[in-house]
Amino acid sequence: KTANYTAVANDAILASTTAGAWTLTLPASPNQFDRVGPVVDTDGTWQTNNLTIGRNGNNIMGLAENMTCSRRYGSFSLEYDDATNGWRIY
What we know:
With about 90 residues, this protein is mainly beta. It has strands spanning about 5, 10-15, 20-25, 35-40, 50-55, 65-70, 75-80, 85-90. The chain contains no helices and eight strands.
């Protein structure tokens, strides 16, 4: 992916920000144990052009905040837990 995109459960995302920063939006109504990932910085450009993970109304790691990915060649997955914890990084 190279531009704004809304993930669905079990999506694996090769996320290139070479052309500029963009937002990967998480599913709005996830079920417990739904996963998104791995999400991978294919071109090593997240440090320059950040990838934003849009929470879409659910917490990420217990926080009501979007997540910014800025580590070159980063890779992670997310799994939905519950309304309190929301999406957990693993």
